[in-house]
Amino acid sequence: MPLVRIEFPVGSTEPYRAQVGDIVYDAMLKTLNVPNDDRFFVLTEHAKTDLIISPTYLGIQRTDKAIIIQITLNEGRSVEMKKAFYQAVADGLHQQV
Questions:
Q1: Where in the chain are the domains?
Q2: Which pLDDT value is given to residue 32?
Q3: Residues 40-84: pLDDT tens digits?
Q4: Distance in angstroms (rounded) separating the CA atoms of residues 68 and 7
Q5: Are the C-beta atoms of 7 and 41 separated by less than 8 Å?
Q6: CA triplet 77, 88, 86: central angle to 5 degrees?
Q7: pTM score of the predicted model
Q8: Rounded Cα distance, 11 and 37, in Å
Q9: Mean of the per-residue pLDDT values for the chain?
Q10: Residues whose CB is less than 8 angstroms from the CB of residue 62 and which lie 6 or more positions away in sequence, other chains included
Q11: Is the CATH number of domain 3-96 3.30.429.10?
């Protein structure tokens, strides 16, 4: 049972949070062999002072709307599966949000 935590800056809408959660869940189904309905998510909003994300770390520009996605998985997923998952999440967020 993977546990997913997604941290949002305060002011994100419920439809936006749901859409991000759907994108992450879809990527889990497609790349990590997660069973249907194995969906345990914690979606949390944080004040600007409580969600500190570097705007330029590693030369990547981030806005004040950046989010943090944390997933706890049991062992058994290969590095290739995890890379495919990360790519699927990034692509899904870029295309749909």
A1: 3-96
A2: 95
A3: 999 999 999 999 999 999 999 999 999 999 999 988 899 999 999
A4: 5
A5: no
A6: 55
A7: 0.91
A8: 28
A9: 95
A10: 53, 54, 55, 56
A11: yes
